[in-house]
Structures are given as C-alpha cells and as structure tokens.
Design brief:
The complex is a heterodimer of chains A (about 140) and B (about 220).
Chain A lengths: L1 E5 L3 H12 L3 E6 L2 H4 L9 E4 L5 H6 L7 E4 L4 H14 L4 E5 L6 H6 L3 E3 L1 H14 L5
Parallel strand pairs in A: 1-2, 1-4, 2-3, 4-5, 5-6
Chain B lengths: L1 E5 L3 H12 L3 E6 L2 H11 L3 E3 L5 H6 L7 E4 L4 H13 L5 E5 L5 H7 L4 E3 L1 H13 L4 E7 L4 E7 L20 E8 L2 E3 L12 E7 L3 H9 L1
Parallel strand pairs in B: 1-2, 1-4, 2-3, 4-5, 5-6
Antiparallel strand pairs in B: 7-8, 8-11, 9-10, 9-11
The chains are: A alpha/beta (about 140), B alpha/beta (about 220).
C-alpha cells in the first residue's frame, strides 16, 4: 500500500516504521525537520518537510497516488482538516485520524472520519492489566 | 440578525462590539478562562465560555438559529472545523472564516466551507494596486470573492483610449458596465469611443482581472 503519515512525533514515527516493516511504501510529512530525525537512518520511506494542511506539500508527498493516509499530529483540528482534505479533495480510499482529546470524538464523528484515540486505547489496556484475574 | 462570533481575540472582540452597537444580537464564544474573565464584565450574557469548534460548544452558543457564524480564532484549521460544523451539522447558511495563510482559501472553497477573509490577500492586493499606477481600484467583490467590480481610469496612452468598446479585446468573463466621463455616467454601447480621462467600470471574474487590466490599461 502507498501510505502517507502526517506528523512525525513519537506516535507518527512509530506507525511509519511499522508500516515500512510491513512492506508498505511510506511517506512521512512533518513541519519540523528535527521531528523527521526520529525515523531510523535505514528507514526505507520518504520524508517531506512541510505542513499536512498544504495541498502542495501533500502532492509532493504523493497523495494523488496514495491508498491510505494517517493524520497523526498532536492537534485534533489539524487532523480533522487533513482528513477532510484527503477524503474530499484527493479521494484517498482509507483515511484514519488520531484523536488526542477523547472528549472531541463527537467532532470527528460529525464528519464521518475514522479515528483512533491513543488515550482511550491505553486506558483500556491498562485497566485490563490492572483488573485481570491473574496474579503476577 | 443573530451572529455567533467564535474567538474573542482582537478581531472577534472588536467585531462583536461593532455588531452589538449596530443593534444585532451577538454571542461571542471564547474557550479560554482568563480571556473570558476579562470580557464577561463588558459582554455579560453575550459571552459564552466553551469550545466553539465542537458540536456541544456551538449548541451552547445557539448556533442553530444563527444567521451568520464567524470563525475568527487564531488557527485556520480551527476556523475550518467551526465553519464545517456550523454548515453541515447546524444548517447555518452563512459562515465567514478568517484565514492567515492565503493558500487555505482554496481548501475552504474545495470543502465548501464558506467565505474566507485573509488580511494578507487584501493588503497584498491593495499594495499591488497602488503599484499599478493608481489607475485601478476595486469597488466591490461578491459571490464569495469570485466576482469583482472595478474601476479603471484611462490615460492618453492606455490601449483602450481612442477605441470603441466593441473593438476592445475584453477577456470573456468581463463586461464593461459603465463609463464616467466628466462627471456624467454613460452606459456604453459597442460603438462608444473611449477617451482619455474616462473612468471605466467593469464587472469581471476575479481570476480574470489581470487580463482585463492588460486589455484596458496596458
């Protein structure tokens, strides 16, 4: 799959590396060149410096050929905007956005954007571990 | 009119004040506690503390019955979300967003997010007009910036001077609407000969105004 990841923080870079290891063709976009340095030296994908809400930057990153896009920045409204641009303007088949604040899920749902909320996932996983029957 | 203004920074603050003075009903929305505390004395019930870029926040601001929603927070992406929510979730017909990056105008248009105002674009346009020897002025833009009415003053050496309106190669998408000559307004026909000193008023697609200017003023 040709995938674009917008946002190269800890979450975005982790995702990008996994996707690349899975054999997908990955391009990572981040405004800060330093953020892109989180990616390992031998990262096989492409890196683009720029903002994910700029259509020229997205084109440079190959959005017109992309099968999928993940909006992984630290700002919810930015992720919404990226997702809408990807879906409505560029017709990317699969778009997922990260939600940083679980309380704003309603906003993403209002636009029909597929979401993942790291905070919710982490809480669920920790709760499961805390409340599990097995003694350690 | 009932106007919801989201974002109580300088633009939102002065806009809300002005609208209230003009007798409109206004709700000013601000999420920041400190800003809210500073302004609540002045605005009272017209100020609501909530996040205007969420459905809940817009609900609290009474967005459903708003005639216009204005998004003037400091971030273009937040203003986009506000306008999309207002239009798509609340059926608000008119939204206006302030945008900092002129490139976002294209995105707002493609996402059907309503009217945008970019002070960068406005000021840059004014600077350009000044530089173009002051012979052209924009009178009005409408249809969300798609159409412009402008006036051009013909000089001795303008390409249009001495020619009939019919002869001019005015780009398609532009019309010469009237000519002001020595204080009198004429509606030109194809045979009207244009003279130096004429002020020509034209209607054009905003995108074609450079071509029009070339054809008329050179």
């Amino acid at each position: 799959m040709v995938v674009i990841v917008v946002g190269c923080g800890r979450q975005g870079s982790n995702l990008a590396v996994r996707l690349a290891q899975g054999g997908h063709q990955v391009t990572v976009i981040d405004e800060e060149p330093e953020a892109l340095e989180r990616l390992p030296e031998d990262f096989p994908g492409e890196r683009v410096v720029g903002t994910g809400i700029d259509m020229d930057v997205l084109r440079e990153a190959g959005i017109e050929q992309a099968d999928a896009l993940a909006a992984m920045t630290s700002r919810d409204n930015t992720n919404i905007m990226i997702a809408r641009i990807a879906e409505v303007i560029f017709h990317v088949p699969r778009v997922v956005a990260r939600i940083n604040d679980p309380l704003r899920e309603s906003v993403f749902h209002a636009f029909g954007i597929s979401t993942v909320c790291p905070i919710t996932l982490a809480s669920e996983a920790v709760m499961k571990a805390l409340l599990s029957e097995e003694a350690h | 009119m009932y106007v919801v203004v989201v974002g109580a920074g300088k633009v939102g603050y002065y806009l809300a004040k002005t609208l209230l003075q003009e007798g409109h009903e206004v709700t000013l929305v601000e999420r920041n506690r400190q800003k809210y505390a500073k302004l609540v004395h002045e605005f009272g019930d017209n100020l609501v503390r909530c996040n205007g870029s969420t459905p809940d926040g817009l609900e609290r601001a009474g967005c459903a019955r708003a005639d216009v929603v204005v998004a003037v927070t400091g971030a273009d992406e937040t203003n986009l979300v506000i306008c999309l929510l207002a239009r798509q979730q609340f059926g608000v017909k008119r939204t206006i967003a302030r945008i900092n990056n002129p490139k976002n105008e294209e995105i707002f248009r493609a996402l059907d997010a309503g009217v945008t105002v970019s002070s960068t674009t406005v000021i840059a346009g004014l600077i350009e007009q000044e530089v173009a020897a002051r012979r052209i002025a924009t009178l009005l833009t409408f249809a969300a910036g798609e159409m412009t009415i402008l006036e051009m003053d013909l000089a001795e050496d303008s390409p249009a001077t001495g020619r009939t309106v019919g002869e001019l190669s005015v780009p398609s998408g532009s019309i010469l609407v009237s000519v002001v000559r020595r204080g009198r307004v004429l509606i030109p026909s194809g045979n009207t000969v244009l003279e130096a000193g004429d002020r020509v008023i034209a209607l054009t697609y905003t995108d074609h105004q450079a071509e029009l200017r070339e054809a008329v003023l050179g």
